[in-house]
Fold this sequence. Notes:
Blueprint: H1 6-13, H2 18-26, H3 34-52, H4 66-69, E1 78-79, E2 82-83, H5 87-96, H6 111-120, H7 133-138, E3 141-142, E4 162-167, E5 172-177, E6 183-188, E7 193-198, E8 204-209, E9 213-218, E10 225-231, E11 235-241, E12 251-258, E13 261-266, E14 272-277, E15 280-281, E16 287-288, E17 293-298, E18 304-309, E19 314-319, E20 327-332, E21 337-342, E22 348-353, E23 358-363, E24 368-374, E25 379-389, E26 393-400, E27 405-410, E28 428-433, E29 441-442, E30 449-453, H8 460-463, E31 465-470, E32 479-482, H9 483-487, E33 497-503, E34 509-515, E35 521-528, E36 534-544, E37 546-551, H10 552-556
Antiparallel strand pairs: 1-2, 3-10, 4-5, 4-37, 5-6, 7-8, 8-9, 9-10, 11-12, 12-13, 13-14, 15-16, 17-18, 18-19, 19-20, 21-22, 22-23, 23-24, 25-26, 26-27, 27-28, 29-30, 30-31, 31-32, 33-34, 34-35, 35-36
Bound molecules: heme D.
Amino acid sequence: xxxxxxxxxxxxxxxxxxxxxxxxxxxxxxxxxxxxxxxxxxxxxxxxxxxxxxxxxxxxxxxxxxxxxxxxxxxxxxxxxxxxxxxxxxxxxxxxxxxxxxxxxxxxxxxxxxxxxxxxxxxxxxxxxxxxxxxxxxxxxxxxxxxxxxxxxxxxxxxxxxxxxxxxxxxxxxxxxxxxxxxxxxxxxxxxxxxxxxxxxxxxxxxxxxxxxxxxxxxxxxxxxxxxxxxxxxxxxxxxxxxxxxxxxxxxxxxxxxxxxxxxxxxxxxxxxxxxxxxxxxxxxxxxxxxxxxxxxxxxxxxxxxxxxxxxxxxxxxxxxxxxxxxxxxxxxxxxxxxxxxxxxxxxxxxxxxxxxxxxxxxxxxxxxxxxxxxxxxxxxxxxxxxxxxxxxxxxxxxxxxxxxxxxxxxxxxxxxxxxxxxxxxxxxxxxxxxxxxxxxxxxxxxxxxxxxxxxxxxxxxxxxxxxxxxxxxxxxxxxxxxxxxxxxxxxxxxxxxxxxxxxxxxxxxxxxxxxxxxxxxxxxxxxxxxxxxxxxxxxxxxxxxxxxxxxxxxxxxxx
Length: 560
Ligand code: DHE
């Protein structure tokens, strides 16, 4: 229906012959009580919005607006080649997942909840409220002012090798001493806490929760604790700090999924300085009401952040040298930008446009797109991994949620010894056989191994295991390590997904999390990177749903 006609449409319905009016009546979405709606809304926010968007316009996950979740009025499921879903099909998809990358929810949601969610997504999406600078400022809590904080490190921990570990479902991070493997502190943070990032100095940890709560932890305190908090939005995933010379620890920036905007703050207090909306045009020239802020990284060669806008496919280089007069370079790449990391030279940033099956590489020195590289389905690099390939020279690697490979892309280098590889640059030089459902890959400059997880794979054994390649000879079969078995913990109903390899500061150990059931005691299994033998199982009744682990030194210096 044309925009100019849409008001007339409703009135005209009343005059239609009975059979057609009845058909329109059948087109009404499934009815729900207010309580059911509230419950479904909560589950949608917690479990679905990340991939499908608050407005359900689709990104990593498919569009879930009623025009295709609901069957046609006559019950048919096809219209001009578009498949319509309907209650039964939706219930199946939610329960069992799809080959396209949707995970199965039958071990997370009950049958009733799956039925409820299927009804909910046939109804019109709820639009959450906006969130202004004033409200952002009102949420700010300075718990320990700067002048009341330690002037030097007050504990004896080796802070370089401290790990900030996400305890996803308890909304906490555990600060674990990488040398002794002791839990030094468990800190309350935001709901379904997502990632940690480090200030340039390595003193402050910034932790962002999915509820938009940003927590600032001071590692110099005798017992590291939260010294400031800010609610940057209602739904958030990313944060970073200013790392350019002269701006160390000065600013922080956090990206919000809803409302679609980013917030610039003072680095040591989180006092908000500026809120910038990301609404605007996609690379295809269409207006998007919900362009969410995906990954953010901080350049060390310019006072700039690379801010990746998911739905528009626009990569922003935001110059923070004068935040009152903010200058932004907008680089068109491809939709739907997600996560990414630096190449080995830290001049190029490579980010997954995951639903377009592409990697975009930005030259941050020239402020231009360097390449758009086609890959297999749904690349998901985390931050990716850099190493020197025996045949192809420097490469950056990404795994895939939707394909059974790890993709190696040749990256440029100023080092004359790599000049012979120049003609390979920005090409996919190898696809290493893996399995779908991979989220994170990792290596370390001092390591000879390459690690890739597969936590989203539907097979229990595969999801609980991690694959390790010998980088000196990538044709050798990879080694599969069952992390759940290595933990020695009793089996649980929920799959314990082995997720997010992270190196110790010296590159000798690899830490793997076991992401288990919402209330199950779980563990981090620490491997000797050389021998691949278990070195230590870190477990504790408070170790519930450990996922991302952020080694202070590696995160501070973007080593991956
Ligand atoms: Fe993440 C990074 C978004 C689900 C663990 N995740 C990122 C980044 C984004 C993102 C945009 C890049 C941040 C940056 O670098 O600034 N993640 C999303 C989602 O939208 C998604 C798909 C769905 C959701 O509802 O949130 C999602 N993420 C997850 C998980 O379920 C994971 C596996 C477990 C968890 O604890 O939430 C998870 N995401 C991570 C981790 C990183 C991450 C560990 C950082 C990787 C790194 O090595 O830096």
